[in-house]
Write a structure and sequence with these properties.
By secondary structure, this protein is α+β, with helices and mostly antiparallel strands. Helices cover 33% and strands 28% of the residues. It contains seven helices and ten strands. It has helices at 2-33, 35-39, 54-63, 111-115, 128-134, 177-181, 206-216; strands at residues 43-48, 65-78, 86-93, 104-105, 122-126, 141-144, 147-157, 172-176, 193-199, 223-225. Strands 2-3-8-5-7-6 form a six-stranded mixed β-barrel. Strand 2 (65-78) and strand 3 form a beta hairpin.
Length: 230
């Protein structure tokens, strides 16, 4: 009886170890497969409080398909009388965003169409929590800095949200890069995170690209990440 109990415990232990190793391997393989979407590109470059120089951006564009965005906290002020001013996590994206994955809206609409300028007003899409906090509905307007935005959609899924989800102090509000350029938020001392992403040509190495960036601009002060970091 004791021997049978020993064999049963041994089998259970081996099965548990195998299951844990198999589970962890599946997670690692899944993360590697989704690394580009998690990172937002093959190579990610981040700068705090200042944007890359024109020369640096020209070099980045030479490496592959390029997109940039601004990530920052901002106060959103509804224009309706019963609206509530709310701290939001602002993200201002260029039209090429995202390079990998897809930003999904609850109504199935296009991000580019939702953010375009209509009758002199830029569009914005938000998380549902933002509507609740500001007491707004789709179609209502708000101000961020000096620019007026119209809420045109709800974000169902943001492909690269996981990287900064824990650092967010407010719900997401996404608008176009051009809208924030008009907002007056971009000035010396503004607490803005400038994000740049590259989609490399098939077969190109993210490690080689990162090495080229670091060798070309050793004192750039930026944070550069590749797929292994994602």
């Amino acid at each position: 009886g004791g021997f049978r109990l020993f064999i049963a415990c041994l089998a259970l232990g081996v099965a548990a170890i195998a299951a844990i190793l198999s589970f962890s391997r599946a997670i690692e393989e899944g993360l590697r497969a989704d690394a580009r979407e998690i990172l937002g590109g093959d190579v990610a470059v981040s700068l705090l409080y200042r944007e890359a120089s024109p020369e640096q951006m020209a070099f980045l564009r030479e490496q592959g398909q390029f997109v940039r965005w601004i990530d920052s906290r901002a106060m959103a002020r509804p224009l309706k009388p019963d609206g509530r001013t709310t701290l939001v996590q602002l993200k201002a994206v260029e039209s090429a965003y995202p390079l990998y994955g897809k930003l999904e809206l609850t109504d199935g609409g296009s991000l580019a169409d939702a953010l375009t300028k209509r009758d002199g007003v830029w569009g914005a899409v938000v998380e549902e929590a933002a509507l609740r906090r500001m007491n707004l509905e789709i179609g209502d307007r708000l101000r961020v800095g000096e620019v007026t935005l119209e809420v045109r959609g709800l974000i169902a899924r943001e492909p690269d949200r996981g990287l900064n989800a824990f650092a967010s102090l407010g719900p997401r509000l996404m608008t176009s890069f051009e809208a924030v350029m008009e907002s007056g938020l971009i000035q010396p001392g503004s607490l803005l995170n400038w994000e740049y992403r590259l989609r490399l040509a098939p077969g190109a190495s993210d490690i080689a690209t990162i090495s080229a960036l670091q060798n070309r601009y050793p004192d750039a002060g930026w944070r550069v990440r590749g797929l292994a970091d994602a």
